[in-house]
Amino acid sequence: MKLKAFKILTIATIAVTGTLMSCKADSNSPGLEYMPDMYRSPAVEAYVDYGEVGGRYNEEAQSMVEEKFSFLPPAGTVPYNGDDYLAPYSHGAPVGFDKSHGLYGVAQDTAGRDGAKNDVSPIAWSTDVLKEGEELYGIFCIHCHGESGDGQGSVVTNGNNKFPTPGPYKPELTAGEIFYTITYGFGRMGSHASQVNPVERWKIVHYVEKLIGKPQGEATLAADDTMVNEGDPIGIELLEAVQDSVEVIEAHN
Amino acid sequence: MNIKSLFISNKIKHLALVVLAFFSFTYNLHAQEGDVATGEALFNGNCASCHFPHEDMTGPALKGARQRWIDNSTEENFYAWIKNSQSVIDSGDPYAVEVSKFDVSPMTPQNVDEAAVDHIFAYIEAFEPPVVVEKADGSAQAGPEESSSLYWWLLSGLLIIVIAVVAGVKGNLAALARDKDGDEQPEQLTVGESARSWAWKNRGWFGVTVFAATIVLLSLGMTKWLDLGVYEDYKPEQPIAYSHELHAGDLGIDCKYCHNSVTKSRHATIPSVNVCMNCHKTVKEGTNADGTAEIAKIYEAAGFDADTKTYTGETKPIKWVKVHNLPDHVYFNHSQHVVTGGVDCKQCHGNMKKETVARVMSSEDLNNVGVTDNDWAENSVKFTKPTLTMGWCIECHRQSSVDLAGAPDGSYYNEIHKRLLKDKKTYKKYLEDDVVTVGELGGLECAKCHY
After folding, report:
1. Does residue B189 sit at the A interface (CB-CB below 8 Å)?
2. Residue B141 neighbours by CB distance under 10 Å
3. What ipTM is given for this predicted complex?
4. Which of A10, A251, B284, B447 is the most buried (most CB within 10 A)?
5. Does one domain contain both B339 and B219?
6. pLDDT for A112-170, tens place per residue?
7. Is residue B41 part of a domain?
8. For residue A237, what are the CA distances in angstroms to A43, A228, A229, A233, A242?
9. Co-location of B257 and B311 in the same domain
């Protein structure tokens, strides 16, 4: 029975090769881990699968991580790298924003957005700040509000009419109101406080003010320069002219 | 002259009357004509952040709103409501009170006159929602391919069985024939003995086959061995079938909008559910029925009641599966690479505009960005080692250059530049290939990543 041995050999070869070949990638499996290669840190980390490790199931660590999946950090958490150095924001969310915008655990303020109308940006205007603001605008705002702030972003134009246009920016908006809107949301817009920190928000405000066409930065700086540095008669004349016109108006009234 | 001009004006009057009658007839009496194009601009500027023409949002669908007001109240109240909704509610109009219950947030008073309202409603009544064309689904191809390879295995298995059976039958027949002819049966050998004697008789080609088989098995084993700890093409199913192709590709949302901590932290992070809700509070329907079901999962996690359009405050975790795993003995920091190094996301994550859920791209995929799929510019660094292995990191550290001269004053790299300018010899050595690479500045030191 020479063929018997040949038979067995053939079957064995095919079986071994077949087994090896069938180890092809299953997209759901991260691949073979010959021994634990420290993929699961003993210090519990975000989004790490603490399921079965070496036959043992670390239920405690697993639930600790899973229960926090896709949640925001606890209220009042301060980043330790010190980027966020501004004083806490004094204005609360509009009344009812817990239900309408999901801002549970956030203080509410009956004044709403009007309360923030006269806030002034603590981040001074400069061309660098404006550039950073533009970059941030390009990440966080542009897909709805559009490149020029006309409310025709790519989400609106490519979205099969599922998404409303936010409309062009209202020219009467003040810096404080824009900041308040980014922080707590407005109408359809949700709160972006978790995505941009207050410093970044003020930088975005500078850029949005530019899109609205508000005189800021360059204009005011230029005006200051002529008034202070030159001290020329034109500036004084202008000032006098303004004072005169005010008097005229008062006289009329 | 006078008579003639009178005649003409009379004619015009008649014409105007006819036209007016025609319009009032076609527009169902109440509708003052408005310009659709002007209306669209006004609608997008004033109403569109809360209203759709054809479906409910923060405010109700506006199609037929004028008629609803006329049926339940008066047309004056309709205009008054738009200008200042609170005044109509205060006047005690029952329909106004009913409408005010639609949403928790009241209708904002709008600074528009009646002509503008007519323009807006001309646009709304003329509005037709565009028909959504479903995309041809390319994912159906994976199924048959897999089963066809299964068929091949079944077929080859069947073939082996047939060969074995035929060989057995042939052997038995030969034994029978020898029995019949009275020939002497060959001596009974055990399986091992017969195998040895058979191998010895055919030692020529048997040796070659065994040698070839050993080489094949060894190389296969080697390949598998090198694949240990390689995560390429790892694409686990996620709790929500999110599509990067739709969001980052079609809708043009920046990667960093959702993965926003990439510039601030070591992790790029999967976004918290409130980021999804920034858009999905409004977008309730997906591109198909499956998509709508997936969006419902977001609502469940966010504690959002789509019917009442309010948050309940009862949130649930979404158990996303982490895709890009690094062992704990490797330190990797996203912000260092993205902010300081200015590395583009696609250098390591490939073209996510063509992927659904996250996948560990193979180095081949990364090299093909901008070459075979030209959505983007080509990646500056080409890889030969598998993604997320140490060789892969090192390759990039060896090639990537550091812009020392452009570093702002007082920064870390500016300080290094100053020191190198003093140590001319080292600087010259670094600049032999015209660039100062990450590797030359310590990017290959063990303790940079392993500590």
Report:
1. yes
2. 9
3. 0.76
4. B284
5. no
6. 888 898 888 888 888 999 999 999 999 999 999 999 998 889 998 888 778 888 888 98
7. yes
8. 70, 14, 16, 6, 9
9. yes
Q: What is the mean pLDDT of chain A?
A: 76
Please tell me which of the candidates A49, A165, A191 has its beta carbon nearest to residue B48.
Answer: A165
Residues for chain A: how many in total? 253
Higher pLDDT, A227 or A111: A111
Give me the domains of chain A, ranges plus CATH numbers.
Answer: 97-212 (1.10.760.10), 218-252 (no CATH)
In three-state secondary structure terms, A205 is helix
Question: In the predicted model, what is the mean pLDDT of residues B287-296?
Answer: 88
**Cβ–Cβ < 8 Å for B358, B244:** yes
- pLDDT tens profile B135-170: 444 343 333 445 567 788 899 999 999 998 898 888
Residues B118 and B74: beta-carbon distance below 8 Å = no
**Within this chain, do residues B211 and B317 fall inside the same structural domain, yes or no?**
no
Residue A26 CA to chain centroid, in angstroms? 35
Residues B228 and B288 in one domain: no
**DSSP-derived secondary structure for B149-198:** HHHHHHHHHHHHHHHHHHHHHHHHHHHHHHHHHTPPPPPP--HHHHHHHH
- Looking at residue B202, the DSSP 8-state letter turns out to be T
Interface of A with B in 26-85 (CB under 8 A): 27-34, 37-42, 46-49, 66-72, 79, 81, 83
B381, B411, B440 - which closes a domain: B381
A178-198 pLDDT, tens per residue?
999 999 998 889 999 889 988
Name the B residues in 128-167 with CB < 8 Å from any A CB.
129-130, 132, 153, 156, 160, 163-164, 167
**Residue B31 maps to a domain:** no
Token reading at A193? 């406080």
- Do B316 and B444 lie in a common domain? no
How many domains does chain B divide into?
Answer: 4
Which among B94, B126, B158 is the end of a domain? B126
pLDDT value at position A154? 92
Q: What is the pTM of this model?
A: 0.71
**Strand partners of residue B369:** B373
Is the CB of residue B326 less than 8 Å from the CB of residue B332? yes
- Best of B163, B172, B279 to mutate (most A CBs within 10 Å, chain A): B279
Residues B371 and B417 in one domain: no
pLDDT score recorded for residue A19: 60
Domain of B435, in residue numbers: 391-449
